[in-house]
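Case study 2.
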Amino acid sequence: MKPAIEQILKEHNLSLTNGRKIILDLFLHADQALANAEIEKECKGTIDRMSIYRTLQSFLKKNIIHVIPTADDTIKYALSKVHLNKENNSLSHVHFICSKCNKILCLDAANMPQIKLPDGFKMRDCQILMKGICTDCK
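Prediction:
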C-alpha cells in the first residue's frame, strides 16, 4: 500500500503545497523514471518551471526522489523507495534501461553485489545500470 502524499511530505518536514502534492502524485503513479520535460508537460498550466525545479531539488535533498543519469547525458528522476519500504533504507539499487523504448526502471528486487572498497573509502550509495529489452518491447 502506498503512503498518502500528505504523509510523505510531513515525514520529510516539507510543507503541503499544491505543487509538491501534484509532483509527488506524478511520481507515485509513474511506472518509470521521469525527465524534467515530462514533469513540466504534466504540470503545464498548474505549476511554473521554477517551482518545479525547486520542488525537485527539495525532493532530492530529502531522498524522496533520486537522479538516474542516462547514456545521452539527460537526467531522469525516480521515486526513492526508502519511505515506501522501511526494511530496505538504502538508496543503492539497480536501474534498467530498455534499448528499444528507452524506459528506465528501478529494479529494487535485484541484489546489489558486495564491493570491497580500499581502506578509508566509505560508500554513500551505488547505482548499477543495466541495458536490455523490457517486457513491453520483447
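The radius of gyration is 16 Å.
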